[in-house]
Amino acid sequence: MPGETLQEAASETALLCPTCGTDTLTAHLTRQGVAVESCQTCRGIWLDRGEFFQFAKNPAEAASGLEDALKIRKFSSKPSPRTGRPMEEIFFPGGGRMLRCPDSGGLWVDADDQSTLSGPEGPLRIDYVAEGEEPDAYGSGAAAVLLALPNLFLRSALTLIGLYGLLLVLLVVASDFLGATLNVTVGIAIVVLLLQFVLGPYVMDLTLKFFYRVTWTPRSALPGHLQAFIDKTCHAQKMTFPHIGIIDDGSPQAFTYGHRPNNARIVISRGLLEILDEDEVEAVVAHEIGHAVHWDMAVMTAAQLVPLITYYIFRQLWEASKSNSSSRGKKGNYGALIAMAFYVIYIVSIYVVLWFSRVREYHADRFAGTVTGKPNVLASALVKIAYGLAGEEPSVDGSGRTGGQRDRRFSAIGAMGIFDRPQAKALAIAGQSSEHRAVNKAAILSAMRWDLWNPWAKWYELNSTHPLVANRLISLSSQSAHMGLPPYISFRATPPESYWDEFLADFGIYILPYLSLLLPLAAWFAAGGNRISDEMIAIGLVAFGFALLIRYTFAYGGRFFPEMTVAALLKFVKVSDVRPVHCTMRGTVIGRGVPGLIYSEDFVMRDDTGIIFLDLRQPLGIWEIFFGLLKAGEFQDKPVVVRGWYRRAPMPYVEIASIECEGKTTRSWVPMLKRCTAIALIVLGFAITLLPVNIMN
Predict the structure, then answer these.
(1) 12 carries an active-site annotation
(2) pTM listed for this prediction
(3) 469-482 and 330-372 helices cross at what angle (nearest 10)?
(4) How far apart are the C-alpha atoms of 516 and 527, rounded to whole Å?
(5) How many CB atoms lie within 10 A of CB 211?
(6) Taking a C-beta distance cutoff of 8 angstroms, is the pair 537, 688 a contact?
(7) pLDDT tens, 21-63?
(8) Most buried residue, 149, 323, 418, 535, by CB count within 10 Å?
(9) DSSP secondary structure code for residue 128 in this structure
(10) Phi/psi of residue 64, each to 5°?
(11) CA 621, CA 254: separation in Å to the nearest integer?
(12) CA-to-CA distance for 609 and 622, rounded, in angstroms?
């Protein structure tokens, strides 16, 4: 229900211990950064389908052993924590007994059997966090003190004054080098942004008309509760009833655009109306109205003018420093240095604008919580839209082929949307077994742990227009507590370890190709910096090729793809866009990657635990467009088997290695092409050293 706490809602989805019968299983952290459900009384553990391999010492051998164990099964009277139906008893080769849920594929391991399975010859290695560390908390213990947000008007004024004050100083400096050219440069930048602001909404109208299935809905055609809510809110804010567009797609989506509050357009999808209850739909629409009320479209346009002008000046200064350095004397020598200074300021101004956007997102959330009087409702909607939700009970055969064509749940939000479009890859949360039911609390925490613990999360947030979902949930929970309402969630868990070592390793792998270019640069300096030789080119190609090969091997290496579920994948904290988790998943394609976009080549898949974004990459962008137009529709509402690499950046997704549908397999050749490119660079580098002709002559 909209007003209930996460703790109250989760009681409907609590897992009961099959041994004790009445005790509720609780999440316990492991040193691997993954939480497992365990009984505090008997110490038995529950592993959802796929979690077995997260703790396997040798996943390939464990998979083979589990396959052999499933050949001989015995009846057990113990009920499955997930379905309540009787489990079956299986014996792992070499010793060790487990109980398996035939419906969900989950495994129960009693305390006595854990020692056998984790012994010297056993397949598992589960290292728990030391006793006494602070556990997670749900819906209780949150401070009633409202998390302070900066005054929106004051912060907006100071930010714009600061940006434009800096710009004024830069213009004075640049005018000494560019003269009259500066006026043209600044004029072009201003005209470009003004045209973008003036024409942008109309261009967006045309885009939605021709490339999306959008219907502009009159007020009378809206659901009665939504019409009444928008009327009431707009009347209180003294603004015109916004134009409402509905995308005919089952994935949840909401965003707004326009010039000012009185000509705002709010676009929502059919899926948003289907998966959210009435209060949650109103809360999401209130968030979008908040953007319009705060004039976010105009304010953000004004803020974006500074980076745009700075970049234009950088380009002019750079070109001037190259073409006129000989005629300008000492002044020309400083041109390149001044140009690079402008580029640095351009980068800094971009991050200031991104930070400014994130502040305004918090204020839009705060506005929605205020006008609805129930911040928890927006928090619940954010969990469903951003973190996804499972839409069906587990399938009878545990295959994940749940079928159904109605609920296509995925979020890809555009300008002034509920989420950042470049990072809108759906994060699925297990435990929503039917429409409007409570979301499993442990699954939400699994997602939040990555947001709050993994250093990559802060990196992605720094480069995003929107805050991390976990931070928004905490802010809304604080608002609820301040209003005297039970908070939606309170996250107090202590990380079981530092994740900086994995982050630094990932980041090193990521930047290794760029670092490799320092080798030919060093050789150039060592040679006096006079000329580029064949040897320097060869060194650069070989070093760059080897660096790429290392990165691609790290990102795609390994041939074993253990079967996983969405719920199991969400429990990984040690995962990033660089560090993947190999997986095989079974489910049903329920929609396109970008809801309503006619040429979207990616998919959204649902298994029996949740939904997740599937990224099908092609060697060329035009290839992806043609695939989206001509082939992607063939997968709609059909069961698929997907092999690939689970990543998170910051939303989780699976990069497809292959997708099988109705006996046909579609493969992505991008990983192989990347490796071949790296090898080709290495071969070319060595070949240059053997060429009889100097290629630099």
Answers:
(1) no
(2) 0.79
(3) 40
(4) 18
(5) 14
(6) yes
(7) 777 888 777 766 677 888 888 888 888 887 887 777 777 788 8
(8) 418
(9) B
(10) -65, -40
(11) 26
(12) 34
DSSP state of 648: E
Selected catalytic residue, list 37, 51, 282, 288: 288
In a 13 Å sphere around the CA of 558, the CA atoms on its Cβ side amount to 17
Nearest to 251 by CA among 424, 421, 410: 410
CB 426 within 8 A of CB 382: no
- Per the listing, tokens 């010859």 go with 121
Token couple for 80:
């499955």
Task: Locate 61 and state its tokens.
Answer: 């051998």
Distance CA 551, CA 333 (A): 39
Cα–Cα distance, 479 to 485 (Å, whole number): 9
Cis bond before residue 2 (omega within 30° of 0): no
**Tokens 């009378």 appear where?**
220
Which tokens sit at 124?
């598992």
What's the distance, CA 408 to chain centroid?
A: 18
CB-based contacts of 657, cutoff 8 Å, min separation 6: 561, 643, 644, 645, 667, 668, 671
pLDDT digits (tens, 9 = 90+) for 73-97: 888 889 998 888 899 999 887 777 8
Q: Which residues share a beta bridge with 128? A: 30
Closest CA to 367 of 266, 299, 465, 289: 289
Round to whole Å and give the CA distance between 141 and 620. 52
Tokens of 30: 């492991």
End-to-end CA distance of the chain: 75
